[in-house]
Specification:
By secondary structure, this protein is mainly beta. The chain is built from three helices and seven strands. The protein is elongated, with a radius of gyration of 21 Å.
């Protein structure tokens, strides 16, 4: 768990106690916080959504928009990755067993850290491989040249590379 500014922590106690209670969410997560999660951004994450008690069940539905500043896993070139994703969570203050922890968003002290939720959701929604283009040729295993920019002429005959 990251150490995050208290500006992102909100109390959900009143929402838990009152059916049909709603709270609108709208915030931008600052660069320091995104960097602390290892997610540098060109455009900072903007979270817009709703916390709603539906018949005693607290739901969090939100949309997250940002542009991440990453690098290609094959050639190390900078990549700007636009992200626009919707998330939904059921929030509880306790679970019956540890097995249920994965099914719910746990807020044992009736406090919810919106930055932690958003950055965790963002991290989990990212692709496992970041590429500058689907046909990226990567770096030459002999001289290290970016093969998207130049043909270095190295003989890679015995070297078999597998990109997945």
């Amino acid at each position: 768990m990251q150490e995050v500014s208290s500006e992102y922590r909100i109390s959900i106690r009143s929402l838990l106690l009152r059916p049909d209670e709603k709270k609108t969410l709208s915030l931008e997560i600052n660069a320091e916080t995104t960097a602390s999660y290892g997610l540098p951004c060109v455009k900072l994450p903007r979270l817009d959504g709703l916390l709603e008690n539906r018949a005693g069940i607290l739901m969090m539905n939100y949309h997250l928009d940002c542009v991440l500043a990453l690098e290609c896993d094959r050639c190390l070139a900078p990549v700007e990755m636009p992200v626009s994703v919707a998330f939904s969570h059921v929030i509880v203050t306790e679970t019956a067993s540890e097995q249920n922890d994965a099914e719910y968003l746990l807020a044992p002290d009736a406090m919810l850290d919106l930055a932690e939720v958003a950055m965790t959701d963002l991290r989990l929604s990212m692709p496992t491989k970041i590429l500058c283009s689907p046909d990226c040729k990567g770096l030459c295993p002999i001289c290290g040249q970016n093969r998207n920019l130049t043909d270095c002429g190295c003989d890679t005959g015995d070297i078999t590379l597998s990109y997945q």
